[in-house]
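Budget justification note: compute hours in this period were largely spent on complex prediction jobs such as the one shown. Inputs:
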Amino acid sequence: MDSIKQNFEKVVKRAQTLNAEVELLVSGGESFSASYNKENLESFKNSQSQMAGFRVIKDGRQGYAYTENLAEDSLMRTFQAALDNAEMLEVSGDTKATLLAPNAVPQIEGLQGSFDDSMDDKLNVAKSLVAKIFSQDSRITAVPYNSYSEVKAFKRILNSKGVDSKFEQSYCSGFGYALAKEGEVSKMGGEGFFARSFNNVTKDIETVAQEAARKATAMLAAKTLKTGNYAVVIERDTFQTILTMLESYFSAKDLFEGKSLLKGKVGHKISSEVFSLVDDPFEATGTSVRPFDDEGAASKKVSLINKGVFENFLTNSEYAQKMNLPHTAHAARSPASQMDISASNLVVEKGQKTLEQLLANFDEVVYLTGFTGGLHAGFKESTGDFSMPGEGFLYHKGVQVGPVDNFVVSGNVLELLGKIVAVGNEYGRGGSDKICPDVLVSSLSFAGASE
Amino acid sequence: MIVQPSILTKALDAALSTGADFADIFIEDTYSSQLSLVNSKPHEAIVGQLYGAGIRVFFGFEVVYVTTNDLSEAGLVKAALNAAKSRGTGDAKKSNPLVQVPFDSIHTYGEKPWEMNRDKKFKWLNSLDQHARARSSLVTQVEAGLNEKFQKIQIANSKGLMAYDERAYSRIRFQNFVEVDGVRESASDDDGHMGTSEIFDQVDLKKMAEEATDRAVMLAKADYAPAGEMPVVIDNAFGGVIFHEACGHGLETTSVAKNASVFAGKLGEKIAHESVTAIDDGTIANGWGSLNIDDEGNKTKKTTLIENGVLKSYIVDEMGSRQTGFETTGSGRKQSYKFAPASRMRNTYIAAGKDKFEDMIRDVDYGLYAKRMGGGSVSPGTGDYNFQVSEAYIIRNGRIEEPVKGACLIGRGIDTLGKITKVSSDLKLARGMCGSVSGSIPAAIGQPQILVSSLMVGGRAK
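Corresponding output:
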């Protein structure tokens, strides 16, 4: 028996004498990353980490505590702290939380890729990404943000009812951001990659470099956009931000706490019928693949929006019971946080139209290729209102007029869903837990130059 | 002291064993506690411990950073050798004998978070909940939380520096939700300091809850902000987020050294209106972004960044100093041992000027009064920033008139600095969490009221 299991069983014995249930979530792994300043290695990081988080349930009340010291005495102290926390809380709602019994979890193949190549090969990828970005265009003056990183991670859940599930994965990822300058104008553009095998990265580096350079240099000639309402094609990667805005509304916990804007909407139309969205923990191109959720329940694929109709909230065992909803196995927590609910991979169903067709759908269309600020600085979750700076290209009858920037696009994210006219027929390059095609919206408000 | 000096010396020597010219070790033992109240009931209680070390090695301008949770002699030496061998092939060097850095703490702490009775803590949270609900029947939900952190750090480097410090942080936060004729809104507020939680006995929690409730109700009834360029008066305290985003990040050597800042190479040049003087100060007693020593063991300082519009200093950490030649400003900071330090802001603010708030408002025919700011972000390379306005009013014919919601402000830092035409004498600071390459750290921001002659307001086009 391994030491984690041995120590946990001692904790379970202690818990049983106190009439408490106990769950242990352990996560950690090994990672390294490297970044370059021109041709010189700038940073090389290597970390090994592990953290253990207890959830203790006593009389339906849940307490949490965590530690990075996995020695037996430390785990016992941390268990006691979680128990003390449980005893000071009250039961939320009419139902009492309990732990899950063991259940069969699916195996997902292909998540532990091959990264046995030499360190020099890997550093060469990081270095060549920077060099290739510089080589694309003489106006690129810096590649200030760049990285190659590799992660081997594990997650293990044990509980006093007998659950002991472990999940391991490895992947590499990275990015390069080009800073382009022309006169007094500076523009930044970046591209990333994600792969479960080192070989796939080496094939992809040229494309990543070209995209980063293209995004930076294309905006150097950007003009202001006149203030007004425009039809918008939201570029596939940019639409990920829209899904991020929506994500918490699908949580049954947010519904219980009165914060979800989708309250009372199950079975109702909440978007245009060309729009369908699923949560898919098995989608291999997504970054949130998992065989079980963070309380050990076997993962499920769940339809959220089907042809415009809202079908399901996401639940864990506690909130499925509390809200009398189907259990969708979307429990989410880290060792250092309390139980929550979150999506895995959100996947928008592809439509029929090409990007060119979407851009030609209206006389005047803004092709929104990026939000240039953080969501925390432009989105209000309690209302769904957003006001975000962006950049993109103006199109007239399907023909590009030129790049535009220095504008703010505003609206309400639920109203936006209702204005979706069509969905594109291609996905992006992957590397995210949100998988989207381009999306055409009939009208959004743009603040730019005075009329 | 967390680890004996003799062990640190062995680890430092291991880090220098392949020819590195500098090494340091950052050791951390941090207690954290989060309590929250939702639906008027205790909702969350989590305590935890971060326990680990970060070992950093310089090979010229190359930085190697390795972390471990094993603070035994064997664990630290193994991690240090791992760092050394990952890059170096040169001759071994020896570290200098360790000498403790003497300093008197400028901060005072009361009861430690684990010593204070938790009923007392929930009493504060209950107080916020009850005052909000008593203020308006339109309140549908209240969330209140208390975050506490007590960080013990030990730093040693190959030049012979050794330092130990303790840092306490306490922050109470509050958000309420209202519904007015089917329109939902929310408002939030917070208070806290670098220190322990007894200060919340002195904070007017009733006022905090009632003002946030009134603000949420007002927003629910407000129309959307207009869209377009206009003059903007930005209030004091958290209004300083504009300087933090528009300029502060661009002065960090993390960006400057790579020539990835619009302020690179501009030392001694006029980069702002002459009414602007800006300070980054780590020495304010119990200030939210203050320190005794930074995360590289250097004593913190008060640094004048801009004086009467002229750029006087960057924000410099050890590697930034090595790359640019400027002396370190005691600004090497990071979230935890899991991050390598980087040059970061502390308590950053625009200094008080001589103008009057009333005159700024009177100067505007049509514009926006941004009374409360939300979060902000910036791209240091371009200087493009944006931030949310969480409470705003239209200024019409020199008077503050109706409230508006949904506004954000965008611009380019260096342009905006040149458009600050008035600075009031009423300086206030506020708390924020700043996210960047070395993680999320407490950073105070501040300013007196300022008038910006023209800014892009993102609202709704009519």
